[in-house]
Write a structure and sequence with these properties.
The protein is an alpha/beta fold. It has helices at 18-31, 46-53, 57-66, 82-93, 108-120, 123-134, 140-160, 166-182, 207-218, 232-241, 257-269, 283-295; strands spanning 3-5, 8-10, 44-45, 72-74, 77-80, 194-200, 222-230, 246-249, 273-276. The chain is built from 12 helices and 9 strands. Strands 7-6-8-9 form a 4-stranded parallel sheet, sandwiched between helices. Strands 3-5-4 form a 3-stranded antiparallel sheet. A hairpin with a 2-residue loop joins strand 4 and strand 5 (77-80).
Length: 300
Amino acid sequence: MGSLVAGHLVCPEEDPSHYLAILATLSHNFFGRAILPQMPAHEIDLTAAAEQLGVHYQTAYKWVRSGKLPARRVGGRYVLDPNKVAAFGERRSMPDAVPRRRPRGGYEQLRQQMTTALSDGDESTVRRLAAGLVDNGVALTTVTHELLVPALLYIGSEWHAGRLPIWVEHRASAIVQRLLGEHDPNPRGRRRGTAMVAALSGDHHGLPTSMAAAALREDNWRVHHLGADMPADELVHFCEQHEVDLAVLTVTIPETRPLANETAERLEELGTRALVGQPGSTLIELQTMARDRNRQSPTA
């Protein structure tokens, strides 16, 4: 036990930390306020750590309590090594790799179920199938690539063949549009850059732009989604005003491809990298091309 000698608390040298809390209690009783022991000079408190990480105090506190952020208690409060705080912040800032998990039974059966549900307008089943995969770690881009796109292509081919009315295709597209909005990705970590996604004047198909925007967001891009039927001059002006790093132009009808290529050249001359959608290219390929293009100079 410690003892009071001439008004001072004498603590055994082998375990002084136990008596820091006693000192605070005695100080509170004698003077009406707590006097906490000073932390070592090389450490910081939790408030300073939260400021260093750019988060709210309660967020840093939760990380400490969960063991994610290393800390120790001194006199009833947490103190942290600023170097370890910096390392923790660096780990958090790294973009997550987009998961490529695959369901145990593969995608074929799920693809057939999704096609039937979209054809029938069964939105609850569409949501259930997508949520079951996303909740188990399958990337939204993979769900779109493996289930949604094949289903929509089948419905479109059936309409062109005269075996389905046009409203079935429109209804299915609207369901997918809402689904993408519900699962809009927002991964943690530092953004790769700022992207703009649009289709140019004359191309009225907005769903491909929504899919491209979702795929880029999932790959840690900050995305301005301008949708379909965008005038070329306005699109170029937008990229100039908003410091866009990468412009992605989707093309669904051949008539707009010359305008898309011309607009991409204008953007490159102004310092904005540009990608123009190609027939048969996938969203996963878009993610790869966007990363590669972002590493190159605009005119490369």
